[in-house]
Amino acid sequence: MSAPVPLARRAAAEAVGTAALVAVVVGSGIQATELTRDVGVQLLANSLATVLGLGVLIALVGSVSGAHFNPVVTLAAGFAGRRTGDGPGPREMAAYVPAQVAGAIGGAVLADAMFARPLVQWSTHDRSAGHLWLGEVVATAGLVWLVFGLARSGRTHLAPVAVASYIGAAYWFTSSTSFANPAVTIGRAFTDTFAGIAPASVAPFLAAQLAGAVVGLALVAVTFGRPTPLTGGEVAV
Fold it and tell me: Nearest to residue 65, comparing CAs of 112, 106, 21?
């Protein structure tokens, strides 16, 4: 049996993985807007790059930290395992969540640097509307349902393909283009580019994502029964 991965290494993997994910999202958005003025093509390029990048990152880091890259997933995993002590405990969550947020901000700054943009420029892309918040609830609920459904059915090996595919689809079927991730949402406020979100729009998005996580866990309970305890390495997102 292999020795457990030290918490510091797992947190570092979450930080670097989340940074890479946001760099893919923001960087591909910048590249798309420089290549075409067609918004549909821009979104297609952005979503395709995100699908490919996310799948690779989950496959790469999943065995180290579980490849959460998402505070919602980390908190949901902790909640699901709270009675038995399985899943990330308070210490792990306290390490993972700040690492994910810091990584997301770093990824946005890195993407801007690669395209000779101001390193930190608050986004002016307003996303304040009820239908967008509903889109975030739906996107996050579906993500949590998928992640924990795979864990409950013993198919976590499908996570790189399944989760990346879901996020790619949710880019198109949700009005918000599926942020579904508080850390990524915060990071994207630091870049005034195609993928950005105005700082004033961040808090409602975070609230919608937390609400979506609750709905997602309820869907897991309804469709798979009472969730079995999860360990930090069993959830890959």
Answer: 21
